[in-house]
């Protein structure tokens, strides 16, 4: 972590309607084989105290969207080519690199999938947690260590005081992920983006870490964006979901509505592939085929080569994101058929 000087955080303009508003975001990657359109016109909102799950397979653009919001896109080759990212009413794309870093440190934070590579292996976890306070708040070394213990207790690490000088490799995968959560929480940000925070963990530990995140989100009334490829892990914690495919949002809905009746065949395929305890041994109906290359997104509906409902119009006409009522939207020409099947 860089030893930058503490920077005052400029106050946000009063009364933003939302914590985070992303509007018509476009991100491209220049590769040797051409331009990959990783994010194509994504818009989403996250309110104070709200949890948004962003769901999609790898290559759907979900992590790139998160990186663009955090200002950590790999540039080049990645480039934001259009859109706006408003956070607490400020357009992040108009801030200087220094202002952006300050917002990122104090107002928004990110939790990564792989805690082991995100943490420094040669520094104790207490030092790394304390560094947040020393760098951003100018806290003394002794006080920073006390705060590190406090944070470890907050994320329910047993015997925190005795373990504050341990190194990352001395903790289990689940405990390391708790330390990542503690680091993200240190400066009490208003928004946390968690990119596949439990993917590397076994199922029981996944549930515990997800429960911890949800508890802390409620306690701090933060906005939380959960990036995941697994619909099963977000059902109990998210308020609303956006489903991404080939760089676009194909469905967005309040979580219960989406689970009850998906309004897009892709979401339906993902839901059908979640194992259910009451139907042991049943064959899971995963979405067949692979997502398209972002260098060659199919014309018309980008999902048509995999869609069991595809018709001739789907090959030619790209569906817009239709308003489907009850706070939901679907990029399928035939969304009404799916909802009528309710
Ligand atoms: Fe399937 Fe056509 Fe709907 Fe696309 S528009 S999801 S291909 S039915």
TrEMBL record:
<feature type="domain" description="ABC transporter">
    <location>
        <begin position="22"/>
        <end position="271"/>
    </location>
</feature>
<comment type="similarity">
    <text>Belongs to the ABC transporter superfamily.</text>
</comment>
<protein>
    <submittedName>
        <fullName>ABC transporter ATP-binding protein</fullName>
    </submittedName>
</protein>
<dbReference type="InterPro" id="IPR013563">
    <property type="entry name" value="Oligopep_ABC_C"/>
</dbReference>
<dbReference type="InterPro" id="IPR003439">
    <property type="entry name" value="ABC_transporter-like_ATP-bd"/>
</dbReference>
<dbReference type="InterPro" id="IPR027417">
    <property type="entry name" value="P-loop_NTPase"/>
</dbReference>
<dbReference type="InterPro" id="IPR003593">
    <property type="entry name" value="AAA+_ATPase"/>
</dbReference>
<keyword id="KW-0067">ATP-binding</keyword>
<keyword id="KW-0813">Transport</keyword>
<keyword id="KW-0472">Membrane</keyword>
<dbReference type="InterPro" id="IPR050388">
    <property type="entry name" value="ABC_Ni/Peptide_Import"/>
</dbReference>
<keyword id="KW-1003">Cell membrane</keyword>
<dbReference type="GO" id="GO:0005524">
    <property type="term" value="F:ATP binding"/>
</dbReference>
<dbReference type="Pfam" id="PF00005">
    <property type="entry name" value="ABC_tran"/>
</dbReference>
<dbReference type="Pfam" id="PF08352">
    <property type="entry name" value="oligo_HPY"/>
</dbReference>
<dbReference type="InterPro" id="IPR017871">
    <property type="entry name" value="ABC_transporter-like_CS"/>
</dbReference>
<keyword id="KW-0547">Nucleotide-binding</keyword>
